[in-house]
Every structure is written in C-alpha cells, then in structure tokens.
Amino acid sequence: MVDGQITWGGLTLGRPSVYRWRQLDGWEDLPGLDSSDEARPSRHGAWAGRPLAESRTVTLEGSIRAPAAEVGAAVRALRSATAVADDADLQPLTIAALGETLTAYARCTQRTISLTRDARLGHIRYTLQWVCPDPTRYGAERSLTIPAPSQTVDGLDYPVSYPLDYGAPITGGAGTAINNGSTSARPVITITGPASTPLIANQITGLTLEFALDLVEGDSLTIDTDAGTVRLNGSADRLYTLTARSAPVEAFTLPPGASSIRYRPESTSTPSAAALTWRDAHL
C-alpha cells in the first residue's frame, strides 16, 4: 500500500482506483474516554480513576470517478463491500497515511451514495462510516523467542586450585520486547515443553504469569492476553492452572517502548522456549 490508500472488504479506496476520497475523520482522533473518576464526598473535585477509550468512529468522504460504462459496476462493488454482515465478526480496515500503515478491526455502519445528474457521467459522491469496537490501531507485527535458561556447567571444586574455574554462565531465559506504538500491546505467548511450572514475567510492569502444570516435549501452552485465554495444544482450557502469584491474563501487556521479559520454568530442558508475538499499538 502507498499513502492515501484504504483497503476494506476487498476494495482499495484511493488513487489509482475509481474510489477517490477527499476527507477522513476519526482515524487520527483520540476516541471519547469513559472516566471512572469518583466525586470526593467532602471537598471539591474527584478521586482520579483510570480513563478507558470508547469505540472509534471513522468517516470517509469521497467520490467515484469512473467511465460512464463502468460506474454502475463500481457502485455495485461498493455496495457489496459495505453490506450488513450476518454475524458479529469484524473486518480489517487498513489505512496508509502520513508514512505509516495501520489496521483497525471494524464494521461498516453507514453508506451514503449520492446520485445526481452527474452520475451518468461517472461522478458519484459517497460517504462511508465504520465503528471500531476496539479503538486501537495496529502496526507492524513483531516477535520474540526466549529459550529456556541453560543450566550452569561445572563450577568450583573443593579444595580449589588456581586458576579458578567458575563454570559456564547461565544463558537464555530473557529478552527484550519492543512496542513502537503509543499504547499497550497485548501479546500472544506460546510456551513449548518440556517445562515444569513455566513462568513469564515483564520486569517493566512487574507482572507475572505462572502456570501450575507440566509440559512434555511436543506440548505447547498458548496464552492470548487479548482474549484472556490459556490453551494447551490449541484446545484444552488451562486457565485454571494460573497460580496465585500471577496477574490476570488480560493485564499482561507490553507498554510503549522496551519491555524486559523473563522466562523461568522450575525445571526444563532443550528445546523449551517462550515465543511472543504482538503488533505495535496506537490510539
């Protein structure tokens, strides 16, 4: 995609397509905020609460510029791409503007196609509106794989003799996840066995996820921090194995910038690892 292009429902809006546009509202706006401020009972003001963004509404105004013989097909294609869905599934709305390409997940809630005397000449104005229940816009996909920490090899033997041999240092077990967005990203974490009581921690937020279970070689535990689910081998629910020292799964996020991530099972061996995938998140 190049700057000025929008993709939705299989259509590309913007040059060089017949669907030109001139104004886009709501994409770069800060959505409305729900405030949990609580009024102070005996003094002015309120106790500050956490603000939460509401849904994002995006409005596009443009015109169809097509040869007269093709304008009818262009209108029908736009109608088809913006038809009312039969389910609650959202579609990707991807917009390239100002040097970056971001995606939100939306449903089309309004379509206006204005037929005037110029319609027969292939000039038709249109307005589209989308609602994004999740107001976050997502950028580049990123990933990080953290191998399980190795065991030390050898060490000091007593009585000691010089030169001293301290053994090989522990390797693995840590990595850095970078979110180049402006709001917290929610990773999907996949832990592969063999591992006992796997633990993953974000040292920036101080939050930990630990699971009271044993993974054998070939097992995988998938933690979706957006959906709040924990699945063993893609199907079996293992959310109940979360230990008391853990944060809620949905609270484990990657704030903007760099996060130091640790993977520490109680016992493990090669090829155990924790793999994180996420996308830069923008509000």
Automatic annotation (TrEMBL):
Residues 181-279 form the Siphovirus-type tail component C-terminal domain. InterPro entries: Siphovirus-type_tail_C. Pfam families: SPP1_Dit. This is Siphovirus-type tail component C-terminal domain-containing protein. It comes from Nocardiopsis rhodophaea.
